[in-house]
């Protein structure tokens, strides 16, 4: 009896697997759902799912997103990419947020000729000289430039201190671009000190900075460290204005930083008040209805990465990864969630930068800078 | 000069934290010759207990209200002591007669277990620790900023160091502890309840980890399930630096390590990202040239 059951069951199971693979378009997602940048992974995933709910089908088939957690770790990211390509046979990969992790995914996507779109990795080398790797956001040099211009022109800062996370490619890239532009404008970077992500104590670095008495302190790192740095800076009696990049954007910034991060400026990708496209309005509407608070940048970028991929699949009229790649490269004037997006020859998205400031528990819109 | 004093205070405050955690490490090692790698993770659990009793929570319909710090911190210390007891009872005691390497591997296993349990139960996103007002004040002496915590931490460390010292050298249980550290079989013949003493050691060691954890969470108000790893390793380094097994040595080692770290960053700001490496280079050199540490006695074996 058991043998008979097995004879019937095995082909049935096989058949169901095959039919499933044919009906669905599989896209792999690699995000940090646990570990140091877990907040990034969670909000990006939320945004991607809203993107999918706006557009769940392409070429008459349903899209399946397969999520793998990379635990905020480079090696885990590479393993996740291998698994998605070899085992799940995905036709495209979306992820991760931290540049270091995307840099681990990119070579694997490249090797296997699978198109890879990072939603929010802003370090230039992620896509540099790569055929299959793209991003849905602008790059560090541009963000660093805007930070420097804003500090020099709008805040009137002449002397800046930079506190750089040497463990993150993102922070190094942003710090260099900031320093270059700030110096070119006529300002001076009077002190530049390092830390390593995961550090808890920054009092030694901050005491050194305090002595040089800067007009502005640039902290182009991630939210946990920014919050701790701000807190310790205020404890040491440093009242200088703080400025950082999009790594600051997470609810934890104010939860951990409290009053210390009040007034901090940061550059980012998205603000409700800067929306210009119908897709953006739809995204905000769904987000507001579901979560009842203001939508964040990373979620919007997650949705954009997904929608750029789907737009390319549609135009390619096929699920062949090579053809999809060609179409992603041709993306121009795409009316995405975060704005009008062009993909340039280096596979970066070109679009406007938003500047926001922390007020209480929320961030408010300050201005937007066009490319 | 002001900068020097500021850095000195920064260093003492960081070093005292390492010291407090290192004392628990060294106590367990002294008695069982076991490096309890889960010590840092025990500390992590204590910060979450303190966090949830400070902010209040609801579980299965029960609503536990917010509690003031003078209630929630003792709760955390006691519950962490219980956790230490359970850990010893179920993970280490069954291996009492097994080779030392098996117990060491179990310690690493307990460490991973607590970290991953933390990820499942508390989630991976860091939480902001609500520092009570009493500990959040800041004074200025001329230009030197003194957060009240950087005074509280050395003070509390000193108090607990004294208490531990009293326990180990002036009480009957302490004499038993020291006897067990020399030889585990003979005390049993003398009518000492070895299991009870070892449990006591773990309870005290874990409670000290809780005190250290709460101070750490107030000083660096960010808690996450993996937060115990680095301070755990640093405290281990401090314990080795001071001479593992020696309570006063652990305190001195912690203080030294904190000061070295801060002054390394202060003197070589360009290499500030390598401060962890400095701690480990010290560990390697101590192990190579003075394995008994600053205060370590020559071990009888």
Q: What fraction, in percent, of the residue positions of chain A are helical?
A: 40-55%
How many separate structural domains of chain A? 2
List the quaternary state of the chains. heterodimer
Gyration radius of chain B, in Å: 19 Å
Number of alpha- plus pi-helical segments of chain B: 12
CATH level-two architecture of chain B? Orthogonal Bundle
Total strand segments of chain A: 16
Largest sheet: number of strands, sense, barrel closure of chain B: 2 strands, antiparallel
Can I get a quick summary?
The complex is a heterodimer of chains A (371) and B (301). Chain A has helices at 2-23, 38-54, 74-86, 99-111, 140-154, 169-185, 203-212, 223-235, 252-257, 278-291, 297-316, 321-329, and strands at residues 24-31, 57-58, 61-69, 92-95, 116-118, 133-135, 159-165, 188-195, 216-218, 241-244, 265-268, 334-335, 340-343, 349-350, 353-359, 362-369.
What does this structure look like?
The complex is a heterodimer of chains A (371) and B (301). The longest helix of chain A has 22 residues, at 2-23. Chain A folds into two domains: 2-138 and 275-351, Response regulator (Rossmann fold), CATH 3.40.50.2300; 141-268, Rossmann fold, CATH 3.40.50. Chain A is α/β, with parallel strands linked by helices. Chain A has helices spanning 2-23, 38-54, 74-86, 99-111, 140-154, 169-185, 203-212, 223-235, 252-257, 278-291, 297-316, 321-329; strands at 24-31, 57-58, 61-69, 92-95, 116-118, 133-135, 159-165, 188-195, 216-218, 241-244, 265-268, 334-335, 340-343, 349-350, 353-359, 362-369. Chain B has 301 residues and is mainly alpha-helical. Chain B has one domain: ABC transporter involved in vitamin B12 uptake, BtuC. In chain B, strand 4 and strand 5 (144-147) form a beta hairpin. In chain B, helix 1 (2-32) runs antiparallel to helix 9 (194-219). The chains are: A alpha/beta (371), B mainly alpha (301). At the A-B interface, helix 2, strand 8, helix 7, helix 8 and helix 9 of A face helix 1, strand 3 and helix 11 of B.
């Amino acid at each position: 009896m058991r043998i008979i059951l097995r004879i019937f069951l095995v082909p049935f199971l096989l058949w169901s697997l095959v039919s499933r693979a044919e009906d669905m378009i599989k896209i792999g997602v690699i995000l940090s759902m646990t570990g140091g940048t877990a907040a990034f992974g969670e909000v990006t995933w939320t945004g991607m799912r809203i993107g999918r709910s706006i557009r769940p089908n392409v070429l008459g088939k349903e899209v399946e997103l397969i999520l793998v957690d990379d635990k905020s770790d480079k090696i885990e990211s590479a393993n996740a990419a291998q698994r998605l390509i070899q085992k799940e046979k995905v036709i495209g990969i979306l992820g991760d947020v931290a540049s270091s992790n995307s840099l681990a995914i990119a070579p694997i996507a490249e090797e296997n000729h699978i198109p890879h779109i990072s939603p929010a990795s802003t370090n230039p080398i992620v896509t540099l000289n790569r055929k299959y790797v793209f991003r849905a956001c602008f790059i560090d040099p541009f963000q660093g430039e805007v930070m420097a211009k804003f500090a020099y022109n709008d805040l009137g800062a002449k002397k800046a201190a930079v506190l750089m996370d040497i463990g993150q490619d993102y922070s190094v890239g942003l710090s260099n671009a900031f320093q270059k532009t700030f110096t070119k404008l006529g300002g001076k970077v009077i002190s530049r000190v390092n830390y390593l992500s995961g550090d808890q104590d920054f009092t030694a670095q901050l005491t050194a900075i305090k002595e040089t008495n800067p007009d502005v302190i640039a902290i182009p790192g991630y939210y946990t460290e920014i919050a701790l740095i701000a807190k310790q800076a205020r404890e040491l009696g440093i009242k200088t204005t703080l400025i950082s990049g999009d790594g600051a954007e997470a609810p934890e910034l104010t939860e951990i930083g409290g009053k210390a991060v009040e007034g901090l400026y940061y550059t980012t990708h998205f603000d409700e008040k800067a929306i210009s496209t119908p897709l953006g309005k739809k995204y905000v509407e769904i987000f507001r209805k579901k979560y009842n608070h203001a939508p964040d940048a990373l979620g919007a970028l997650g949705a954009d990465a997904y929608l750029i991929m789907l737009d390319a699949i549609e135009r390619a009229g096929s699920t062949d990864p090579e053809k999809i790649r060609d179409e992603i490269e041709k993306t121009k004037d795409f009316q995405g969630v975060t704005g009008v997006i062009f993909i340039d020859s280096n596979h970066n998205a070109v679009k406007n930068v938003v500047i926001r400031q922390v007020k209480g528990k929320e961030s408010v819109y300050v201005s937007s800078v066009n490319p | 000069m002001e900068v020097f004093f500021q850095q000195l205070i920064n260093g003492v405050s960081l070093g005292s934290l390492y010291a407090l955690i290192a004392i628990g490490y060294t106590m367990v090692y002294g008695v069982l010759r076991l490096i309890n790698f889960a010590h840092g993770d025990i500390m992590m659990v204590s910060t979450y207990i303190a966090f949830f009793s400070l902010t209040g929570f609801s579980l299965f319909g029960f609503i536990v209200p917010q509690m003031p710090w003078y209630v929630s911190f003792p709760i955390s210390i006691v519950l962490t002591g219980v956790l230490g007891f359970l850990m010893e009872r179920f993970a280490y005691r069954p291996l009492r007669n097994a080779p030392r390497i098996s117990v060491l591997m179990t310690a690493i296993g307990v460490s991973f277990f607590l970290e991953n349990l933390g990820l499942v139960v508390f989630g991976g996103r860091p939480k902001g620790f609500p520092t009570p007002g009493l500990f959040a004040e800041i004074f200025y002496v001329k230009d030197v900023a003194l957060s009240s915590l950087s005074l509280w931490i050395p003070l509390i460390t000193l108090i607990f160091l004294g208490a531990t010292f009293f326990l180990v050298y002036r009480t009957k249980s302490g004499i038993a502890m020291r006897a067990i550290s020399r030889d585990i079989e003979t005390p049993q013949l003398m009518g000492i309840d070895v299991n009870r003493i070892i449990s006591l050691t773990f309870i005290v060691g874990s409670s000290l980890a809780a005190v250290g954890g709460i101070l750490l969470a107030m000083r660096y108000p960010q808690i996450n399930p993996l937060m115990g790893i680095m301070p755990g390793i640093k405290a281990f380094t401090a314990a080795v630096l001071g001479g593992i097994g020696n309570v006063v040595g652990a305190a001195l080692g912690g203080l030294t390590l904190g000061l070295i770290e801060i002054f390394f960053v202060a003197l070589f700001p360009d290499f500030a990202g390598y401060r962890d490496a400095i701690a480990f280079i010290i560990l390697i050199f101590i192990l190579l040239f003075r394995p008994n540490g600053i205060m370590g006695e020559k071990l009888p074996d």
